[in-house]
């Protein structure tokens, strides 16, 4: 992967795994999961329910820069795939 490609954020987790800066993306994911655990908005459960379906999630990635354009940190955000929801 070229150095230029590392300045572009990955579109998904698979793309993040194929990059040389994977460790930084993993750290960003872990930071987000820990922050959500601390807030009480994240828990890992065993879901075995025939009546309901779990809503899938995925991570969005971003690189944060300071006022001078210097990259300051890697950021991951978890989002629900709400289009999978069914009313009721």
Provide a descriptive summary of the structure in words.
With 88 residues, the chain is α+β, with helices and mostly antiparallel strands. The chain has one domain (4-42, 51-84). It contains two helices and two strands. A two-stranded antiparallel sheet has the order 1-2.
What is the topology?
Blueprint: H1 13-17, H2 22-39, E1 57-65, E2 71-80
Task: Determine the number of helices (DSSP H or I, runs of at least 4 residues).
Answer: 2
> What is the succession of H and E elements?
HHEE
N- to C-terminal separation? 46 Å
**Total beta strands:** 2
The profile of the biggest β sheet is: 2 strands, antiparallel
**What does the average pLDDT come to?**
85
Q: Give helix % range.
A: 25-40%
Regions with pLDDT < 50 over 5+ consecutive residues? Answer: none
Number of folding domains?
1
Strand order of the largest sheet: 1-2
Residue fraction in strands? 15-25%
Radius of gyration: 16 Å
> What overall form do the CA principal axes indicate?
elongated
Secondary-structure-based class equals alpha+beta
Q: What keyword list fits this structure?
A:
alpha+beta, single chain, 26% helix, 22% strand, elongated, two-stranded antiparallel ribbon, 2 helices, 88 residues
Gist?
The chain is an alpha+beta fold.
């Amino acid at each position: 992967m070229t150095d230029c490609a590392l300045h572009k954020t990955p579109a998904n987790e698979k793309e993040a795994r194929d990059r040389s800066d994977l460790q930084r993306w993993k750290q960003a994911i872990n930071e987000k999961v820990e922050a959500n655990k601390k807030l009480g908005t994240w828990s890992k459960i065993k879901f075995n329910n025939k009546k309901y379906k779990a809503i899938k999630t995925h991570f969005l990635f971003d690189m944060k820069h300071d006022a001078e354009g210097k990259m300051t940190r890697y950021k991951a955000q978890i989002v629900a795939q709400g289009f999978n929801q069914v009313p009721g």
